[in-house]
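Why run this: before we spend reagent on co-expression, it is cheaper to look at a predicted model of the complex and decide which construct boundaries make sense. The entries below are exactly what would go into the expression plan.
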Amino acid sequence: MLNVNFNIVYTIINILILFVIFRVFLFKRVDKVLKERNDEIENATATAEKKSSDADAAKAKYDADVQKLEEEKENIISESREKGYHEYAQIVANAKVEAGSIIEDAKKTAKLESERQRRIYEAEITEMVVSAASKIAAGSHSEQQDSELYNRFIDEAGDEEK
Amino acid sequence: MDFTAIGAGLAALTGIGAGIGIGIATSRATDAVARQPEASNKIMMMLLLGCALAEATAIYGLVVALMLIFAK
Amino acid sequence: MSIGERLNELLTEDKTMIPVNIGIGPEGFFNINKSVVYSWGIMLVFLILCIFLTSNMRIHNISKKQLIAETIVVKLRGLVADLLGSFGSRYTEYILTVLLYIALSNLVGVVGLVPPTMDLNVTVGLALMSIVLIEAASISKNGAGGWLKSFTKPIWIVTPMNILELAIRPLSLCMRLFGNVLGATVIMELIKMAVPMFIPALASLYFDFFDGLIQAYVFIFLTSLYIKEATE
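The model came back. Tokens follow.
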């Protein structure tokens, strides 16, 4: 029952062989698969993380672009507003100048017109005077009297006109 | 006279120690489970282990007894 | 056949199965015992089982047997991971090998064969390997100097006890396993002779399955504990 012999060595060899069997056919194979699966999961996680960060970056870029466009829009609006204001001022100024010139013209025209009217008037008066003088001349008057009268008349008329 | 049987019987008395030991372990384990029922799985495991270790003395006695009788 | 005769036959039978005579040493020293031949059978069973379970392994769409293999490996590793500690985890595969070998050896009794672990040679071999592994772990962790110094811990006066432990530990390991299996087998024989019906099946549940597996676990538990203690 208790005899101990070389079977101890056989047993040790058996256990070592069994250890190799388990190592080669169980642990290594299973570990390999588990490791591969783990690697794959890690890869997938890394890819997903990378994609997520890419998306974040793209979104940030998009946001920045939007911001930039907004600013540009703001700029354009204010610029155009300024421009419009300028133009408005210009137009008003032009209009003022034009109006001034028109008024000037009108004044000139009015002056010319009045001159012309005066001329016409003068001529009419002259004619009238001449006719009156001729009517007077039909009476008995000397040449000198006539001319004197005539001049006085004209002066008076001119004074009146002015 | 052959006193082998008496010797074997004395060797089997190791069972007393194992019995007391397992009894104490079980009573403590019961206390522990009553106090912390949520740890009962772990306590059960420890109890089994302790019983297996305490049982070893009784087993030694058994081996000695059998040796006395058969391994001449 | 009386109980005494049956026990006598069981315990004193000649265990030799294959006589080997190489002309040196005592008579029958190199004979191959039944237990070793049964161990070959157990190894063959494990080999076939491993090859069957791990053949055709895939990463996706795994088959049921691959799932079983993966579950077994992961669970077994988890079982001893805590026991061995961080440094000792490199010996996980050896510890698991011993666990599976002892477990199947103890279960052989179910089919009526004599368990290989009932042969003292087998348990002595296992215990020797355990103590060698424990000391090797200590040396590889602390170096030869640290290993020698560890005998004087915690104080120098316990050095003889520590040296004695070198012998006591494997002795207790092998005798515990051997005695348990022997006791279980003897008691099973007694029960079989006394009550031939039903009861042996129930008793077999306890003595062969429960006790056998517990003893396998106790063996590796203690070995792992010693390794952890030596490498801390």
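The two ends of chain C are 55 Å apart (CA to CA). Chain C touches chain B at residues 7-8, 11-12, 172, 175-176, 178-180, 182-183, 186, 214-215, 217-218, 221 (CB under 8 Å). Bring this page to Monday's planning discussion.
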